[in-house]
Amino acid sequence: MSKHLRYLFFIGPRDKLPKPLENSLVRELPGLVVQVSTDWDVLVEKAEQEGILPSLILVDEAFAATNADLLQVFQDTYPNAILCLTFNGEYTSRLHIRKCLKTGIINNVIPMNLRLDLWLYAIQIMLHGGSYMPPDLVELLEIDRSMQLEKARKATAASGVSGVHIVSSLTPREREVLELIARGQQNKHIAANLSLSEHTIKLHIHHIISKMGVSNRTEAAAAYLQIHRSAGGNG
User: Fold this and answer.
1) d(Cα 227, Cα 101) in Å, to the nearest integer?
2) Is residue 59 within 8 Å of 11, Cβ to Cβ?
3) Helix or strand or coil: residue 99?
4) Is 64 within 8 Å of 85 (Cβ atoms)?
5) What end-to-end distance do the CA atoms of the chain give, in Å?
6) What is the C-alpha to C-alpha distance for residues 89 and 112, in angstroms, rounded to an integer?
7) d(C-alpha 154, C-alpha 32), whole Å
8) How far apart are CA 31 and CA 29, in angstroms?
9) b/e for 17-32, b at 16 or more Cβ within 10 A?
């Protein structure tokens, strides 16, 4: 019977997913079963005992901020589940949100104070394999991204090493991966496009970050875009 059901895991304090909101989920989305816990191991153990797999995993921002290393564990344990970061109130923890998005593991964000019908719609989108992120958060992140582009440009100029030289130091495959990162693609999509495993893609990204002298994939993408914009402007 469980194969006809869909499962949603919420990892975080119970008060961050109030019972009335959970009841609305179950009422409006027939066949959905919600599991709530602050303990990931408890959720996994129960899921294994009952033979269930989650379709969607909601992770409270505070939990994610203090357990960032578990994000990869979530993905490795349930590779077919959609991971989504939840937050309450305003974007006061934008740094935490940005940090989680930089991992490339979480690409969905949902505010818990959305109007109920919009919130339920966003949940449905993700349960069907889609993505969701509030438009105003996208705008804020784009501003952050522009600042990172400027930072990358200054870092490149200060190093005295040309951007073209930095990119040319990458292997052809690494350049392919970097281009797809710059297009905003997730690791699993990059892997599918290049017919490689996600593990191989992660290794390529590690090498790219090391060779470019940046801190993460976002800075690598920002530097790549800045280099190409500069090249276009000089051409």
Assistant:
1) 23
2) yes
3) helix
4) yes
5) 63
6) 8
7) 50
8) 6
9) beeeebebbeeebeeb
* pLDDT tens series, the chain, 235 aa: 345 689 999 999 989 999 999 999 999 998 999 999 988 888 889 888 988 899 999 999 888 877 877 888 888 889 889 999 998 765 555 666 766 776 677 778 898 888 899 999 999 999 988 888 877 666 655 645 555 555 555 555 555 444 555 677 788 899 999 999 988 888 889 999 999 888 889 888 888 887 877 777 887 888 888 777 765 544 4
The amino acid at residue 73 is V
What pairing do the DSSP bridges indicate for beta strands 54-60 and 109-111? unpaired
Question: Distances from the Cα of 193 to the Cαs of 82, 176, 180, 198, in angstroms?
Answer: 19, 10, 9, 11
Report in angstroms the alpha-carbon separations of 107 from 75, 132, 163: 12, 8, 28
